[in-house]
Write a structure and sequence with these properties.
Elements: E1 7-9, E2 12-18, E3 21-32, E4 36-50, E5 53-60, E6 71-80, E7 83-92, E8 101-111, E9 119-123, E10 126-129, H1 136-145, H2 147-150, H3 162-178, E11 181-183
Antiparallel strand pairs: 1-3, 2-3, 3-4, 4-5, 5-6, 6-7, 7-8, 8-11, 9-10
Helix pairs in contact: 1-3
Length: 184
């Protein structure tokens, strides 16, 4: 069995973006056949300096080479269209680990668009179809016409604008597209 091992894990995290700043955290239960079970973590932050580059910082114990090591990882993230490159230093926080590593990561996003649009005639004069961005003005008018009634259950609509509805639909439609991305 020398040299043969396996590991498995699942990373679960939350990320938030506010203007030029992004931050988040994650947890990763992980099992390595030679080293046993570990609960790993990551906390990260990034600040976009220019459109194509951001300063990044991770504090993590997710293994780089099988061993769980507490590390701080500063770097720079360069983005150009669908490609990003991330050179970084991986600095140990443990006294028993002496190696600072220079790492570089690459990623290219391949977009696979799967158009699962549907248009169903429910009955004469009534159609069921996926929402589209150009539906925003019609949705806004329906909300505005019934605002007093709806705000009892949906208090956020008291100050909803047509632009807010456009932004929301853009975000929903973009999120759906992001789920169709294949990352290699």
């Amino acid at each position: 069995m020398l040299g043969r091992f396996y590991d498995s894990g699942l990373k679960i995290g939350l990320d938030k973006k506010i203007g030029r700043v992004e931050f988040g955290a994650g947890v990763m239960p992980m099992y390595d056949s030679g080293m046993g079970y570990n609960t790993c973590y990551t906390v990260h932050a990034a600040c976009r300096v220019i459109q194509e580059a951001a300063l990044v910082l991770d504090i993590t114990n997710i293994p780089e080479y099988r061993m769980v090591e507490h590390r701080i990882v500063p770097g720079i993230l360069f983005r150009a269209h669908k490609l990003w490159v991330r050179p970084e230093l991986s600095i140990p926080l443990n006294d028993n680990v002496q190696f600072t590593r220079v790492l570089i990561s690459f990623r290219y996003d391949f977009f696979i668009e799967i158009m699962l649009q549907f248009d169903i005639d429910v009955k004469t004069g009534i159609r069921l179809r996926e929402v589209m961005l150009n539906d925003a003005p019609m949705i806004y008018r329906a909300i505005a016409d019934h605002r007093d009634y709806l705000k009892t259950w949906l208090p956020f609509i008291a100050n909803l604008s047509e632009q807010d509805e456009m932004d929301f639909l853009s975000q929903v439609l973009f999120s759906r597209r992001k789920k169709e991305i294949l990352l290699l």
